[in-house]
Amino acid sequence: METSKRPETLRWVGDSADGHLLLIDQTLLPLEVREIECRDVPSVWEAIRALRVRGAPAIGIAAAYGACLGLQRFRTADRSAFLTELDRVIEYLAGSRPTAVNLFWALERMRKTASAFRESTDAAEMLEGLMAEARRIHDEDRAMCRAIGRCGADLLADGSSVLTHCNAGGLATAEYGTALSVFFTAQDQGKRLHVFVDETRPLLQGARLTAWELMQRGVPCTLICDSMAGQVMREGRVQAVITGADRIAANGDTANKIGTYSLAVLAAAHEIPFFIAAPTSTFDLSIASGQQIPIEQREAAEITHGFGRQTAPDGVPVYNPAFDVTPARYIRAIITERGLISPVDAARIQSVVGN
Ligand code: MRU
């Protein structure tokens, strides 16, 4: 049940010809809930790159609307100019972030939508079609998140305490989230739940976003530094770990926010089940294993000058991978909108996701 009203993570305002995208600027949370307007493709690219909109499904949705923004000026152009521009816009948006496959999945849907139009279709109609596809991607994500919640809630017993990392909530999706959807659904079913929230260095998505979302919905939670997870597990305070994902390879190896792999290893050491919650749009069956997942490298300043204060000596060499890959063997199950994938192996993934 919703306990408070806030703007949607992202929404399209107006019609296809001259509407625009509004999104919550997540870099300002939890201090300020402010929507920003994106009226052109570079502003969508920048919002994705700067993590104003973030989380794999939300990035895909933003990019789909971004493609529509890019084609507004071409609605009176001829068909071939329209399609050439669409290719250019897709290529540009695809360069915003490399790891979350939902970005490429959504852009591919937009490309396929346009190429399916008949030769006689004019550009204005094609733009309408792209807009409809972007809205479908958005709506489908809502439904997928709800279904993931229903599927995963069965895994949590009344009174259990779970740990999560980064933010896989409504802010990372159309609404409701993936990992957080499991918690919200369990709570809606009347189960008592407690969530340990990793703060998630260096950009603090756990502290700034997940703690905020859980508190808004009245889910009891406790914030910890990432380095405290082992101690919390050793003290017997956690019965399950559930995180989201940015890309899942055909064999189940899963990329998610940096620190997830360490959590999975810790969970194995303490015999705590480790789950991934993700929609089928996060699977990349074109790659065999996690070794082929591109890992985003981000600016040193996120570590040396986090949130405006210098915390490391000038010129110190920095390594800042934004994601890591958890081998499938550490994952007890993947919670999808189509059901549970367990054991996590290529055959089971193919039977649930491949079609
Ligand atoms: O860098 P971010 O904040 O985009 O990373 C997000 C995550 O790692 C999430 O866990 C993932 O995208 C799943 S969102 C449902």
Which strand-content bin applies to the residues?
15-25%
Order of helices and strands: EEEHHHHHEHEHEHEEEHEEHEEEH
Q: Could you give the order of strands across the largest sheet?
A: 6-5-4-7-10-13-14
Domains, number? 2
CATH evolutionary superfamily of the largest domain: Translation initiation factor eif-2b, domain 2
Hetero groups in this structure are: 5-S-methyl-1-O-phosphono-5-thio-D-ribulose
Q: Treating each run of at least 4 consecutive H or I residues as one helix, how many helices?
A: 11
CATH class of the largest domain: Alpha Beta
Average residue-wise pLDDT: 96
How many beta strands in the DSSP annotation?
Answer: 14
Radius of gyration: 20 Å
Description:
Strands 6-5-4-7-10-13-14 form a seven-stranded mixed beta sheet, sandwiched between helices. The protein has a four-stranded mixed beta sheet with strand order 11-8-9-12, with helices on one face. Helix 1 packs antiparallel against helix 2, helix 2 runs antiparallel to helix 5 and helix 4 runs antiparallel to helix 5. Strand 1 and strand 2 form a beta hairpin. It starts with 9 loop residues before the first strand and ends with a helix. Helices cover 39% and strands 16% of the residues. The chain contains eleven helices and 14 strands. It folds into two domains: 136 residues, Four Helix Bundle (Hemerythrin (Met), subunit A); 202 residues, Translation initiation factor eif-2b, domain 2 (Rossmann fold). With 355 residues, the protein is an alpha/beta fold. The structure holds 5-S-methyl-1-O-phosphono-5-thio-D-ribulose. The site of 5-S-methyl-1-O-phosphono-5-thio-D-ribulose has 20 residues, from helix 2 and strand 9.
